[in-house]
Model the fold of this input.
Amino acid sequence: MASSDTALAAGRRPRGVAPFLRSQMRNIAPFLTLIFLSAFFAFASPSFATLDNLGNILTQVSVTGIIAVGLTFVILCAEIDLSIANIPLPGAVAIILSILLCALLGLVNALGLTVIGIPSFIMTLAMMQIAAGVSALLVRGQIAYKVPGLITTLGSGSIGGIPWIVIVAAIMLLGGHLVLTYTRFGRYVYMVGGNREAAEYSGLNVKLILGAVMVISAVCSGIGGMLGVAHFGSAQQNEFDTYLLDSIAAVVVGGTSLFGGRGGIGNTIVGLFVLGVLNNGLDHVNIDSFLKILIRGLILLAALVINVYAQRLREKAAE
Done:
């Protein structure tokens, strides 16, 4: 009986190239998109495929990458954090205080989600408005130029020709990958995202994990915001609004499932390069600036379609 069950299970296992490609669509599609975009822009503009421009791309995606680290944790739990657009604080605020305040805002998100039961979309949308109000009170419509020395160095300095902001982003992405891949907490994140009910039955404190990822996202947002302020040389209200879409897009375009439990930092890195190559490449070709926004939206829509379609294929295969 056992051997027949094994054979039956083996018979249901998909074999061949086509089933494998379908099962790996979420991972393969971003790579193919990156290759296609790189080849297209290299052909369209001689100035694109250069080492100097590669450095530009890395610098341009660094702040988004730092913020996307925290968002990867959140989305892996099948949640969302919209408050990252306005959590970054002006550089005039002390570094430690800024990080603590960001963690506090993340904790408020966590309490709203896990204690009160407010959906993360609504909770973080409200917190985005609250954080925007805090930012407005601090800046009061002015542009702040005073940035702590350490943040200035990390945001706009370099070592050996490599920008510090790229190094910080790489360290945070690596740290996020190690946590998700090799720690118990990382396994819990995947368990909560993969099957929350099963995680609860196994004795896992799901609320604690959800709260933790919201705080992680807020802290990453704060660090990214501070370095972004130093990189741009000033702080002003609504300066980081575009990073909300870019950070979410990087995670989703890279192939991390919006339904949770699938993906990771590796996918986020691919998504960052897709967005970086797309944004940078469009600047190298003669194209209407408004059309650039449309193209970015279409890329994101395609990623969402692939994300949902891949989930449906997985559900059918499990039946």
In short: Residues 289-318 form the longest helix (30 residues). Residues 61-311 form a domain with the ABC transporter involved in vitamin B12 uptake, BtuC fold (CATH 1.10.3470). Residues 139 and 252 are 32 Å apart (CA to CA).
